[in-house]
Amino acid sequence: MFKIGLGELVVILVVVLLLFGPAKLPEIGKALGKAVREFRNALKDVNEDAEKTGKKEEEKK
To answer: Is-contact 19 11, C-beta < 8 A?
Structure first.
């Protein structure tokens, strides 16, 4: 999808540092990590539900 190199990553980090300051970075990182974790768990739940539904439909046939 997107290929971000080391140079682009450094530029993004510098911009974030300038916008939010060093005191807010740990809070932002924690919130971002929590959001990614919740998103992965939601995807896992959706996949498990889809597999269960698929198995139930196969059993009916």
So the answer is: no
